[in-house]
Write a structure and sequence with these properties.
Distance between the termini: 34 Å
Largest sheet: 6 strands, antiparallel
Shape: globular
Oligomer: single chain
Structural class: mainly beta
Order of helices and strands: EEEEHEEEEEEEEEH
Strand order of the largest sheet: 1-2-10-7-12-5
Low-confidence stretches: none
Number of domains: 1
CATH class: Mainly Beta
Number of strands: 13
CATH superfamily: Jelly Rolls
Radius of gyration: 16 Å
CATH architecture: Sandwich
Strand content: 35-45%
Helix content: under 10%
Mean pLDDT: 92
Length: 186
């Protein structure tokens, strides 16, 4: 019996994962990851890195981050506490949905996660205070491969639910998309 519901989202390869909870008088048990079940959703590699974040203030935007080949990565982003508006942008050069974005609310209460394949920029906005996320990555972080899109880019027209707050200097500094941006080739 599956411990996950896997829902395909509008951009090819992106899925929403909903975990089930087994409750008793002590609390609950919830499986965070299962290689057999996640392979069906497109996670067909090992986990190379796990990161845990805390974002204190509601409205904060982090992202839109990605790593360029050969360090492109899959991510499984799980909300451990609070709620976020999770955004992915297709930056696959040859994709029919190139530069299209999709946003999805995910919360800890509903046991939700987003599986993001290689070739997508990722970011989120906190909808509550004190949001904790855990990220599973298919590739280790490589600083020389790091890149990003500006979350306020008018070319993307992302509809953030709240005014964007607390952008890092790095995220504010990502350039706007212009005619020279060709995406990535996987």
């Amino acid at each position: 019996m599956s411990r996950f519901e896997i829902h395909n989202l509008p951009l090819a390869g992106v899925s929403k994962i909903v975990r089930s909870f087994k409750w008793d008088e002590r609390g609950f048990l919830s499986r965070m990851y299962c290689s057999d079940e996640f392979e069906k959703a497109g996670w067909d590699t090992s986990i190379a890195q796990i990161n845990h974040t805390l974002t204190s203030e509601k409205g904060t935007v982090r992202g839109l981050h990605f790593q360029r080949p050969p360090y492109s990565e899959k991510k499984l982003v799980t909300c451990l506490h609070g709620e976020i508006w999770d955004v992915v942008v297709d930056i696959r050069r040859d994709s029919s949905t190139f530069l299209q974005w999709h946003g999805e609310k995910i919360s800890s209460e509903r046991g939700e996660a987003i599986l993001i394949p290689e070739g997508f920029a990722h970011g989120f906005q906190t909808l509550t205070d004190d949001v904790e996320l855990i990220y599973l990555h298919s590739a280790p972080y490589e600083p020389s491969s790091e890149d990003g899109l500006n979350p306020d880019d008018p070319e993307l027209r992302i509809k953030w639910p709240l005014p964007c707050a607390n952008l890092s200097k790095r995220d504010k500094g990502h350039p706007m998309i212009d005619e020279h941006f060709s995406g990535i080739k996987l």
